Amino acid sequence: MTQWKKTTAEEDFTAQWHLEGLSPGTRYVAVLEVRKPDSQETTAILRGGFETASAKNARTNLTFCMTTCHDFIRSDNGVQGHKIYPAMEEINPSFLVHAGDIEYYDKPEPWALTVELMRFKWGRIFALPDNRSFYKGHTTYFLKDDHDTLKNDCWPGQQYGSVTFEEGVRLFNEEQFPSRSPRYQTVQWGKDLQVWFLEGRDFRSPNTMVDGPEKTILGAQQKSWLFQTLDASTATFKLVFSPTPIVGPDRSGKKDNHANTIFAHEGEQLRRKFSAVDGVIVLCGDRHWQYASEDTETGLWEFGCGPGSEKHQLGWKKGDERPSHRFLRVAGGFLSGHLESKGNASTLTLHHRTVNGDVMSTFAFPE
């Protein structure tokens, strides 16, 4: 049992507990009780749960899901929320990765030009019944991107309305989502699967900076950590979850990610490094269509999970398949992965799915 914590308006009445000493590969039940500061009477109870990662030497079967690009005004199931959540509930993943753009400060109803309006948007989207029901019962890793940090294609030093970039970072990193420092991390789910979660906003260079060795999205410290931990990994499959594309292809006019020419130097560096490490696959958010691509120069695979709503698909023409495409679907949905271990062998199968969970693609690794 944890100690009681007092919430305040200054922190949007949020509270966090850092749990230690948890057993690996275990399903935990969580019970949250609420009471007034001057009373011993419980006024509300919330029940949920989560699953911890399997022991590093354990061979295990598991399923995970991935989504991106939500907001309240483009939810596709009315007041219930997003259709993907009941569909993912049926799959019952060990964990979910939300790759960012969880809400859009810079979209209307309302435009979130103040911290108070940003907090309003968070409270509203997580109050949607299907969304709330899913998250309270599943381990989730939350990444952030531009729209849920400050505004479109943002970088440190900018401002949106009355909110600075630094205030937007604090709101996400320390208040509205589980806090940790640094934001990037790696987690091993058993012997065969290790996952990496990248931070793509906090350390980046301005998009307007001339490209070259010093221009970065990841920052020197995160990139050094990433390369070192990839080299040290003994997992069969090494999944790098990125808020934005690293392989692409992307639209020619975009200027915000490693698949764009303005970050060509670091993008090429990452693709060459990833392709040189056995078992690395990139899974990304941000793009409003589903795709699988294989880099024509390095052979690196990337999977774009697609937007989490039928009302959020845009930005790519249907049928416009490029040489690197191995799958293209301009529609909403999500990505699922299934790890199966048999004896000394293991396979990873990735599926693009519709918002209702129907399988639209199947890719098995090793190939």
Characterization of this structure:
A hairpin with a 6-residue loop joins strand 1 and strand 2. This protein starts with 26 loop residues before the first strand and ends with a strand. It has a seven-stranded mixed beta sheet with strand order 8-9-10-11-13-12-14, covered by helices on one side. A six-stranded mixed beta sheet has the order 5-4-3-15-16-17, with helices on one face. It has one domain (56-365): Alkaline phosphatase D (PhoD) (Purple Acid Phosphatase, chain A, domain 2). The chain is an alpha/beta fold and 367 residues long. The chain contains six helices and 17 strands.
Can you lay out the helices and strands and say which pair or pack?
Blueprint: E1 27-35, E2 42-51, E3 62-67, H1 84-91, E4 95-98, H2 115-125, H3 129-135, E5 139-142, E6 159-160, E7 163-164, H4 165-176, E8 185-189, E9 193-197, H5 220-232, E10 237-242, H6 264-275, E11 280-284, E12 290-294, E13 301-304, E14 325-329, E15 334-342, E16 345-353, E17 363-365
Parallel strand pairs: 3-4, 4-5, 9-10, 10-11, 11-13
Antiparallel strand pairs: 1-2, 3-15, 6-7, 8-9, 12-13, 12-14, 15-16, 16-17
Helix pairs in contact: 1-3
Number of domains: 1
Q: What's the β-strand tally?
A: 17
Mean pLDDT: 98
Distance between the termini: 47 Å
In CATH, what is the homologous superfamily?
Alkaline phosphatase D (PhoD)
CATH class reads Alpha Beta
Low-confidence runs of at least 5 consecutive residues: none
The proportion of residues in beta strands is 25-35%
Q: Look up the CATH topology.
A: Purple Acid Phosphatase, chain A, domain 2
SS class: alpha/beta
**What is the helical fraction, as a range of percent?**
10-25%
Specify the biggest β-sheet: 7 strands, mixed
**How big is the Rg?**
20 Å
CATH architecture field: 4-Layer Sandwich
Shape call: globular
Strand line-up in the sheet with most strands: 8-9-10-11-13-12-14
Order of helices and strands: EEEHEHHEEEHEEHEHEEEEEEE
